[in-house]
Design a protein that fits this description.
Length: about 300
């Protein structure tokens, strides 16, 4: 597929772009910083500028596309990851402005250019646990896509607003628009770097609901969404199958969630449910931390 990918230079985006390239997709990366990856063309652009988004949506994805002499091809899909990536990087209102206006501009341009597959990054933070003031426990476990989303912070608020925006665009257009509530992204080098500390002190992972998503498996999820048509508007949790700590499900419940209703769960089953992604798009996480951390 011919894919416009916003935010492909970021932590999550660069691994997803690399995965898509390996799967044979053509990717144009739209970001404020170029991605140095063979096979990827870059456009430096600002998602909060509607004109720039409309321009890149009708852009060549490389010099080779000039050769046929038949004009600019249309993108088959848009993957939108560009955003202020977390709280406490900019002012709160700037975080909210960039993320909401940027998402509106990207989806608006895609729909008006007839791009019928749009995938956008939402977040684990929508559930209100990650950036809560103090400890906020889930209302039940495991957290699935039906769990209430009532965050307190500007970043997570922007992601909830973006889901509403996307649903509205899908309602009018009828296109496939899928939102990914991405859990804490782990790059390959971070297993050896960070996980020994998580094993020693599981409480370090409480705000991430003890879950994670390998950056390469996130790329697989994007690819599966690109290949799955006809779902309309859907929201998916994106996580790996296990916890990011050595403690078992029962041990974590005993230490952290004694008063939280819990459904039957496996010995090391993630609290951040990914069953919907597996069922509807065929997501199959291939990486888990025990493959990379000795002992």
């Amino acid at each position: 597929m011919r894919v416009l990918f916003t935010g492909g230079s970021g932590k999550a985006g660069r691994h997803a772009v690399e995965y898509l390239i390996e799967k044979g997709h053509t990717v144009l990366n739209v970001d404020k910083v170029a991605l140095d990856l063979p096979g990827v063309e870059n456009r430096i652009a600002d998602i909060t500028d509607a004109g720039q988004m409309f321009d890149v949506m009708a852009s060549y994805a490389g010099f080779d596309e000039l050769e046929p002499g038949t004009g600019v091809p249309k993108f088959d899909a848009v993957v939108h990851f560009a955003a202020v990536p977390r709280l406490l990087m900019t002012s709160d209102n700037e975080c909210y402005r960039v993320n909401t206006i940027g998402t509106y501009n990207v989806i608006d341009a895609a729909v008006k250019f007839g791009v019928k597959k749009i995938i956008f990054a939402s977040s684990e933070t929508t559930y209100g646990v990650c950036f809560a003031d103090g400890e906020r426990k889930p209302e039940y476990l495991p957290i699935d896509e039906e769990h209430p989303v009532i965050p307190e912070d500007s970043y997570a608020m922007s992601k909830v607003a973006n889901e509403v925006t996307a649903r509205s665009f899908q309602r009018r257009s009828g296109f496939d628009i899928y939102g990914l509530r991405i859990n804490n992204v782990i790059e390959p080098h971070e297993y050896a770097q960070n996980f020994p500390a998580y094993i020693a002190d599981p409480s370090l992972r409480r705000r991430n609901i003890f879950a994670y998503i390998d950056a390469r498996d996130l790329g697989q999820m994007v690819d599966r969404c690109l290949k799955t048509d006809g779902l309309g508007f859907e929201i998916f949790n994106v996580s790996n199958d296990d916890h990011s700590v050595a403690d078992s499900t029962a041990e974590l419940i005993e230490k952290f969630y004694q008063d939280v209703p819990v459904s039957d769960m496996g010995e090391n089953e993630t609290f951040y449910a990914n069953k919907k992604a597996k069922k509807l798009v065929g997501f199959k996480p291939a990486h888990h931390w025990r493959m990379y951390v000795d002992g």
